[in-house]
Amino acid sequence: MKQEKSRNFIGKEARFGARNYQPVPVVVDHAKDCLVWDVEGRQYIDMMSAYSAVSHGHLHPRLVAAAHRQLERVAVTSRAYHGTTLGPFLEKLCTLAGFDRALPMNTGAEAVETAIKCARRWGHQVKGIADNQAQILVARQNFHGRTSTIIGFSSEPDYRAGFGPFAPGFTHFDFGDMESVRAAATANTCAVLIEPIQGEAGIVLPPAGFFRALRQWCGENNVLLIIDEVQAGLGRTGKLFAFEHEGIRPDALILGKALGGGLLPVSAFLADSDVMDVFNPGSHGSTFGGNALAAAVALEALNVIEDEHLVERSAELGAYLLARLREVQALAPALIRDVRGRGLWVGVDINPAQATARELVEALAAGGVLSKETHETVIRFAPPLTITRELIDQAVGVFEAVVHERQARLQKQAQPQACPA
Ligand SMILES: *Cc1c(COP(=O)(O)O)cnc(C)c1O
Fold first, then answer.
1. Does 390 lie in the same domain as 319?
2. Which of 94, 322, 343, 353 could covalently link to 237 via disulfide, CB atoms 3.0 to 4.6 Å apart?
3. Where among 284, 307, 330 does a domain terminate?
């Protein structure tokens, strides 16, 4: 039975909140690095890290210190004025990512909207597509956020149903399939907008060589390649950016989540001048985008990724996590259909005939491990990049126990049918 305190907080959210979420029934009270405590004092290992927003671990001391320092000076001025933190943040971001310019926003969806506006204006002003005719190619099963324009080009019925009419100007292709990209393109195609790994779709990896072929095709056809690394970027996949796995460079890049160091929403759209300079004063903006506090934290977030070698950690410990989860899969091949991932970003694909991902996620939480299902069949493990081998071992141990328990129950259920009359 849920304890009194937890029930109270869950009840208030249920009573006064809109019903657009169905959280795992854990009431987080406080957290430190990879550990989280609920209001009853129970401890959990965070194997989810807020969908990669907490890649640095909870309340990283250097990030908290950077925030405190800036809170003694100024937090928000709007972009009506200059400040002392935005320039240094943008300089660091552009240097790391290898782009001329960056445009700061707050949420990932806003940075995606920025990319869409930029691509369309570039299509019109630079490529010469007639006004209002530019088309953007997007992958089926994409996830780029929740604004009305973005869900308009989702292929997920739950995200769309009843929210139309939707903005035109998007055409689908199949993720990983160049033939389908070619078939979807027209002379009015200005950009391809794509995730390097489809996270919300279930951590779907592209076939090897796809991004190299896509890069080449975009170049030949004067189409911008815009990669959405809101979730995959900043070390999550074992490279600073996931596009590095295929040795390519996009024309524009979208970042978010971990860019805010787990403290604040910070996102950015990056491109070289020939693309970014389609924005002129007045054409785009955000009251909070690039605010002094966010820029101070984001600059420190980038410094910490370098200083603490978080990208290398992700590669090493991610390989370890993947191997450990594959050991569990080998014990339960009927229950676990697939274990896939890159870096500290692993999806465990559950056979829906045996269990829902949600049931296992709740059993994991009861055992002290926070994870999250995506769709009905995939459990996502994406801990902070600061996680240790010891914590991975503990978390996988709990997962193994959950899997054992589930198998034992399935065998018991199956027994009557196993003895013919
Ligand atoms: C989370 C996410 C977004 C949206 O970010 P928000 O901050 O939730 O608006 C966009 N693209 C991808 C790939 C994401 O994972």
1. yes
2. 343
3. 307
- Report the distance separating Cα 187 and Cα 328, nearest Å: 49
Which residues fall within 8 angstroms of residue 416, CB to CB, at 6 or more apart? none
d(CA 10, CA 28): 11
> Is residue 203 a contact partner of residue 197, using CB atoms and an 8 Å limit?
yes
Catalytic machinery residues: 143, 228, 257
Q: To which residue do tokens 């389908």 refer?
A: 180
* Residue reference for tokens 């006004």: 131
Query: At which of 277, 307, 337 does a domain end?
Result: 307
Question: H or E segment at 121?
Answer: helix 108-122
Q: Is residue 419 part of a domain?
A: no
Q: Which of 107, 142, 154, 230 has the most ligand 1 atoms within 8 A of CB, as the residue to mutate? A: 230
In one letter, which amino acid is 32?
K
| CA 255 – ligand 1 centroid, Å | 9
> Which ligand 1 atom is the nearest neighbour of the CA of 145?
4
**Cα angle for residues 67, 48, 150 (degrees, 5° grid):** 85
Q: What is the pLDDT of residue 1?
A: 47
The 10s digit of each residue's pLDDT in 333-385 is 999 999 999 999 999 999 999 999 999 999 999 999 999 999 889 999 999 99
Name the residue among 108, 106, 112 with its Cα closest to residue 291: 106
pLDDT in tens, 296-313: 999 999 999 999 999 999
- Whether omega for the bond prior to residue 165 falls within 30 degrees of 0, making it cis, is yes
Q: Are residues 133 and 274 in the same domain?
A: yes
- In the sheet with 28-32, reading across from the earlier edge strand, the strands are 28-32, 35-38, 43-46, 369-370
